[in-house]
Design a protein that fits this description.
Strand content: under 5%
Number of strands: 0
Largest sheet: none
Distance between the termini: 65 Å
Order of helices and strands: HHHHH
Shape: elongated
Number of helices: 5
Structural class: mainly alpha
């Protein structure tokens, strides 16, 4: 338990140090911009211009960070019809491959099925009802 707390404290210290360091860099850049602008502008507008640049960069960074932290858009879940169509395509492809590898057995089974449907009116009606629904 003490190791977890120590790691958490160390992580906090590293993140805090990085934030302070980054803040120092931003302040140093703002001072550099101010010193560069003081030759061109009076002190007050130079100060405003020097402070607007880091502020705009901070806002842009926050916007980018918030966009990156958003949960990805959820894809629409497939409906039962779509899922059944995909399963039917998969099963049909595998059945077609199976029939292609055994052409003689396929021909015999087709002839027997045609004879059975032709000979039995009940089987014919059941098959027609299955096709219509």
């Amino acid at each position: 338990m003490a190791q977890v707390a120590l790691r958490g404290l160390l992580l906090f210290a590293v993140v805090f140090g990085a934030i302070v360091l980054l803040g120092g860099v931003v302040v140093a850049l703002a001072v550099a911009v101010y010193l560069a602008l003081i030759d061109v502008l009076p002190p007050a507008p130079a100060l405003v211009a020097a402070s607007v640049v880091p502020l705009a960069a901070s806002v842009a960074g926050l916007l980018v960070a918030s966009k990156c932290m958003q949960a990805p858009a959820r894809r629409a879940r497939p409906t039962n019809e779509t899922l059944l169509a995909e399963l039917g395509n998969l099963a049909g492809g595998q059945f077609s491959n199976l029939l292609g590898t055994h052409p003689r057995k396929t021909a015999m089974a087709s002839l027997l099925a045609g004879f059975a449907v032709g000979a039995s009116p009940e089987l014919r009606r059941a098959l027609l009802n299955l096709i219509k629904s």
